[in-house]
Amino acid sequence: MNFDAQTNNSPEDRAAFFQWLTSQTVSALQAARDNETALHDAIRTYVKHALAAHLSFEEIEDLLGISEPSIMDLAELSEADEESVVDAFEDLCNE
């Protein structure tokens, strides 16, 4: 789904993009359970789409693990998988 936060101020379009990104990422994380490499790939794809849409770092972080319900909540991952997701996100933030 195409969305650019710099040029599109529509709350409806933003919400639709967030819903799409959440759905895509939850599906990818669920498919990647118990596979650290696949979990990292799912997070890399999530961040790539979020950055391409020019979302702020705070929005990217909130959607992944802070907002209610967050992507990690919806994916219903094990504690070990959640740790892998957090590690992957932190690695990407430090690149």
Structural summary, described in words:
- With 95 residues, the protein is mainly alpha-helical.
- It has one domain.
- It contains five helices and no strands.
- It has helices at residues 11-31, 36-52, 57-66, 71-75, 79-93.
- The longest helix is centred in the first third of the chain and has 21 residues, at 11-31.
Gap between N and C termini: 26 Å
What structural class should be given to the helix and strand makeup?
mainly alpha
Shape call: globular
Radius of gyration over alpha carbons? 13 Å
What keywords describe this structure?
single chain, 95 residues, mainly alpha, 5 helices, 0% strand
Topology:
Layout: H1 11-31, H2 36-52, H3 57-66, H4 71-75, H5 79-93
Helix pairs in contact: 1-2, 2-5
Give a quick rundown of the structure.
The protein is mainly alpha-helical and 95 residues long.
